[in-house]
Amino acid sequence: MTDEASGAPAPHAPTVKGTVAVYRGATLFDGTGRPARRSTSVVTDGPVIRAVGDDAVIARELPEGAQVFDLDGRFVVPGLIDAHQHIATPPDRPVAEAVLRRLLYSGVTAIRDMADDLRQVGDLARATLVGEIPGPDIRYAALMAGPGFFDDPRTHQVSRGETPGAVPWMQAITEDTDLRLAVAMARGTHAAAIKVYADLDHTTVAAITAEAHRQGIPVWAHATVFPATPGQIVAAGADSVSHVTLLAFEGTDAPLTTYKNKPPVAYERFDAGDDPRIEELFALMRRRGTVLDATASMWASEALAGEGPEDAARAEANTGLSAALTAQAHRAGVDIATGTDYETDPEAPFPALFEELSFLVRRCGMSPEQALRSATLIGARSAGAEDVMGSVEAGKLANFVVLEEDPLRDIERLRSVTLTVKRGRRFERRDYDLTAPGAERPGRVPTPEAAEAAPTRPAEETR
User: Fold this and answer.
1) Fewest CB atoms within 10 A around its CB: which of 56, 88, 101, 353?
2) Which class for 123: exposed (0-12), middle (13-18), buried (19 or more C-beta within 10 A)?
3) Model pTM?
4) The pLDDT value given to residue 452
């Protein structure tokens, strides 16, 4: 090619190899399971972490020309991961960019996008990766479901201009589908996974999963696919399952037919948190390493509050169910990732992920340390990216968050974020606070109370 253009500006690009920075004097929660360490240095070399160690040791080996940042005892945690986002249903580029920007400046360095219009998501993923716009890394899924699902209006929103169910990122699967071709087409969108959604029996789910794994791509599934049950989905080899409330359909006496015709949930069955059928399911998940993308706080959000007393009662019942099942999964040793599937109001200073973490601690029996592990190392595992993110270790991406206060004492202290480092690039929280929607004047400091603004972004329909 001749006359190659340089392309769009990339002011948020990862730092380049050879650019060395040292963050010293940190109190580090590295996400590996080790206790938090004081007087620790993190050395970055371009987009990756070069070394992590005691301040005195690192100081003796400090490369010439390294830029040094003194953290003075501030707390450092791995970059956070939201394991369940939707940023293009329907596509709206300005809204998506605003969501991604707030996520990054709040310490979120990666998300799983759980099937949207991948024409836009793919470009957003490219733009955040190369630094044209600020945002977390995006690992996204292409969706497969039974033909009956494709009269859902969301499938039309994400296939506009094409036929829902007949595009590579949103495919209707029948007994005549060539799964080798279908998976290859999905992979051609640069998707990181296949999402199995609705109206598929367990034989088909197993066949999709086997072919996806043969082609080297994981499967992210709804926890019940109707008629396929949670146990059948886990046994088929799904790498993660989403929405803890859908696990209530394991062992139900009522028949499972289609996504749109779910039987009623016997809420009282789960109140004690010791249902034996669910316990068997969690034991299977633990043995197989299946990650639970619980979206535990979703029903407590106004995104699913509905209108009137009937909707409110249902949301309250599902919130209780979510808390009980997530707590039982946690006690059973299931790996739980922190997905949201909704967002807080655009005026709110922090994203819904902070609400999810609070819910896991307040309602599900997790300690702040365990919740942070879910939002970091387990989140990376859910995204198939544990080898490059999820902990602060040498050789992994330089993704971490600097906090003024200790989140291990109180998970709400994540709101004291002052700096996000993503692929070695620094993103100062004050730069977001001065330009965010609702920022009244320079120097405005958001309060924790401001983060309680009502969520308005629609959640994925899981009822």
Assistant:
1) 56
2) middle
3) 0.93
4) 29
